[in-house]
Amino acid sequence: MTAPALPEGTILGYPRIGRRRELKRAVESHWAGALSEADLEATAADLRRATRERLVELGLGRTDSSIPESFSYYDQVLDVTATVGALPARFTRLRESDGSVPLSAYFTAARGEGDDAPLEMTKWFDTNYHYLVPEIGPETRFALTSDRFARQVAEARADGFVTRPVVVGPVTFLALAKATDAAPAGFAPTSRLDDLLPVYVELLASLKAAGAEWVQLDEPALVSESVDVDPAALAALAERAYAVLGGAADRPSILVTAGYAQLSPEAWQVLAAAPVEALAIDLGRGALPAAVPGLESKTLVGGVVDGRNIWRGDLEAAWQKLEALKGLGAASVVAGTTTSLQHVPHDVADEPALDERLVSWLAFADQKVGQIAVLARGLAEGRDAIADDLAAATAALEDRRSAPGVRVDAVRARTGALTDADFSRGDYAERAAAQDAALHLPALPTTTIGSFPQTGDIRRARARHAKGELTTAEYDGFLRDEIAAVITLQEDLGLDVLVHGEPERNDMVQYFAENLDGFAVTQNGWVQSYGSRATRPSILWGDVSRPAPITVAWAEYAQSLTAKPVKGMLTGPVTILAWSFVRDDQPLGETANQVALALRDEIGDLEQAGIAIIQVDEPALRELLPLKKADQPAYLDWSVGSFRLATAGAETATQVHTHLCYSEFAVVIDAIAALDADVTSIEAARSRGDVIDDISASGFSHGIGPGVYDIHSPRIPSVEEVTELLERAVKAIPTRQIWVNPDCGLKTRGYAETKASLRNLVAATVAVREEVGAPQG
Fold first, then answer.
1. What is the mean pLDDT of the chain?
2. Measured between alpha carbons, how far is 766 from 775 in angstroms, rounded to an integer?
3. Cys-Cys link to 284, which of 242, 277, 338, 671 (CB 3.0-4.6 A)?
4. Could you tell me the maximum CA-CA distance found in the chain, to the nearest angstrom?
5. What are the DSSP E strand ranges found in 467-537?
6. Helix (H) or strand (E) run with residue 335 in it
């Protein structure tokens, strides 16, 4: 088929939550019953229209398919699940009479309902975005059950835009899926590829009929060595898939993207030979591939503008990569982003409180679109046309290198003096005995992960303090009252190890960023984490140090209110890096050690204040694991090392906890053991305790808390549900090791559901203690 040409520049996706999180507010208002579905749809349509207009204003074309149609109400993988009829059987009752999937069913699959658990959630490759895991079995019946993709294309056409719909490709969709409970042992979702492809063919035809000239099929699984299918097998799946899709008679032109790392050689050869019109490759995290047959008929989109970080970057180097890409002999070369821009905030111009010099080093989504427009102009008119833009970017880089605070001699002297002894804490058995003697905890001790609900009152008080409407003394008094209430609640519920609830923290990373040198924080730099949830990653721009204690006063006050142990709560160095936009001018390990030393000082001060249990959260440990196996040992070395550096100074009797999110325990079991934390809590409830078998098989010998309460859903787990998970745990793991806790912090939940859920958690624990004959404490 003859493809309409792609323009010289495009992006692979754009933030979809709105500059002021308009989509979040509308969706949550709809869930609360305050906004009708029709009004929600209207709000979303307005947001899509504003996005298209903004992208044209920034330099993309209105009718040349350079604008990606990448909107989602919740998650791009769930969008495909709903579109191809793959909702689990437990949600079948929610479909319309014609089999179509309404928006209400879509949201229920994401959030659960009654006894029906939502889809499992896990990390999207090595990012901080979470996707909902499809459940595919031999019984899954694929069919085109939603026309939402086509409706959005038609909506854009009606407004005078020719956009490029973005759909997760069939290979990635199946590679990221899990088998249904009904599937036989050894069943692989990828075995259903031939059954799924006819639905994709039908989807492509519907997109063309709606007015799409191009469609973008995202296949990041083809770069990964972390999914359950090896690269050669993935390449073979891609060969089958794109022979069918490319051979479809009624379709738009196809752009296949493979971001987040370098394509495997097998996948590169397969895609180059496939009957598709364009390929997009990540040249930020991958080297220039070799020339292979088939490229002469294709457009290559060179991912040269980083879609995952906020630095202005080296535009000259980006230009040189595009020039080198021309040497592969493709029909044409297009400037693109490495990934979707959903991983960065909207607009650095929307940050008036940031230092102007720092701003000159940054590029958020809008600035990155501007960079693409510059490079596109260079491809169309020649380098001389953009020489001034390239020089300005180079000058910003040089200014950044020499700015005060980027390098601090005292910080570098301290990291340079580290020895092996600074990373080792001593024998675990000796520590465990000392901690048992000091803490006197019952079998199956109960606790929470750290945060309690961030109520509207807390957010309003924080905002009023920031505006000067509350004095610091008044605000501190408010926070003390909140802490006292949380301590009282936990004692009433019967929890064994308490937390202070973290009312003073707006975010588990930003709170530390605001109190450490070398960081800056944003006002409007929101990035979607999952569903309606967004975070504001801090900007780690310089050498890191701790000018004063951060958490000690709050922990000390909470401990003064109870005879039960209260955990000191810190965010670990890997997570602080993972959930920040980190300087890219030195190895991550060097930066992590700077953060670790600041935390080591904080732990020492907490111990001096009488805190006997200190939790250093590392929910992002698995998240940053490189997609290429060859790169993983070096990552695990510095990431584990930074945690050990932070915690190795703790006293023998101090119990060090850590927490990991969606960490796929089996993948990083050796690293988790190497952390040498006394107790590790890990998310397990949404997967119904699947991780327990991995823990048992690994021989993990330290304390372990597989979560029994999924906090990412408003569901209240019953006593029976929690009991079943605990019984599964005590059958597989020695009771002396097991802790009982929710999957994660309770910040996003309301108090009514929190109280009910924790009450059930404690009741289930009491019942299981009785079953196994363990003392109640």
1. 95
2. 9
3. 338
4. 80
5. 517-520, 527-530, 533-535
6. strand 332-337
To the nearest 10 degrees (0 to 180), the angle between helices 387-402 and 315-325 is 130
Q: What is the pLDDT of residues 453-475, one digit of tens each?
A: 999 999 999 999 999 999 999 99
Single-letter code of the amino acid located at 451 = S
d(CA 503, CA 596): 24
Helix orientation angle between 456-466 and 472-493, rounded to the nearest 10 degrees? 160
Side chain identity at residue 697, one-letter code = A
What value does the mean pLDDT take over residues 394-417? 97
Alpha-carbon gap, residue 219 to 207, rounded angstroms: 19
* Closest to 525 measured CA to CA, from 734, 655, 363, 379: 363
Neighbouring CB atoms inside 10 A of 190's CB total 23
**pLDDT tens-digit readout, 120-154:** 998 899 998 999 999 999 999 999 999 999 999 99
Q: How many CB atoms lie within 10 A of CB 59?
A: 16
Q: How far apart are CA 131 and CA 136, in angstroms?
A: 15
- In DSSP terms, 130 is beta-bridged to 123
Q: Which of 495, 515, 519 is closest to 504 using CA atoms?
A: 515
- Number of Cβ within 10 Å of residue 633's Cβ equals 10
Please identify every residue annotated as catalytic. 712
* H or E element, residue 280: strand 278-282
d(CA 342, CA 12) in angstroms, rounded, equals 9
Residue 341, amino acid: L
Q: Which residues pair with 571 in a beta bridge?
A: 617
Check: CB of residue 685 under 8 Å from CB of residue 709: yes
Provide the Cα torsion 215, 218, 222, 227; round to 10°.
Answer: -150
Task: Judge contact between 303 and 283, C-beta under 8 A.
Answer: yes
Looking up tokens 């709170």, which residue turns up? 511
What does residue 241 show for φ and ψ, rounded to 5 degrees? -65, -45
Q: Listing from the earlier edge strand, what are the strands of the sheet with 214-218?
A: 68-69, 164-168, 214-218, 253-258, 278-282, 299-305, 332-337
Residues contacting residue 726 through CB under 8 Å, at least 6 positions apart: 444, 708, 738, 740, 764, 765, 768
- Hunting for tokens 């085109």 — which residue is that? 144
- The SS3 call for residue 36 is coil
pTM of the model: 0.92
Q: Containing H/E element for 135?
A: strand 135-136
In the predicted structure, residue 592 carries a pLDDT above the cut 60: yes
Structure tokens at 679: 């107790």
> What count of Cα atoms within 13 Å lies in the side-chain half-sphere of residue 728?
21
Q: Are 680 and 615 in contact (CB under 8 A)?
A: no
Q: How far apart are CA 243 and CA 245, in angstroms?
A: 6
- pLDDT tens, position by position, 617-651: 998 888 888 999 899 999 999 999 999 999 999 99
- Does residue 2 surpass a pLDDT of 70? no
Residues contacting residue 769 through CB under 8 Å, at least 6 positions apart: 442, 443, 444, 775, 776
Give the contacts of 74 (CB within 8 A, at least 6 positions apart).
27, 106, 107, 110, 132, 531, 532
Of 265, 150, 258, 140, nearest in space to 204 by CA: 150
Rg of the Cα atoms in the chain = 26
Instruction: Summarize pLDDT for 466-514 with one digit per residue, the tens.
Output: 999 999 999 999 999 999 999 999 999 999 999 999 999 988 999 999 9
pLDDT at 1: 52
To the nearest 10°, the Cα dihedral for 508, 512, 518, 523? 60
From CA 125, how far away is CA 59, in angstroms rounded? 30
| Nearest by Cα to 238 from 176, 170, 330 | 170
Residue 237 CB-density burial (10 A; 0-12 exposed, 13-18 middle, 19+ buried):
buried
Residue 739 in this model has a pLDDT that exceeds 70: yes
Q: CB neighbours (10 Å) of residue 534?
A: 18
The residue count of the chain comes to: 777
Residue 277: φ, ψ to 5°: -95, -25
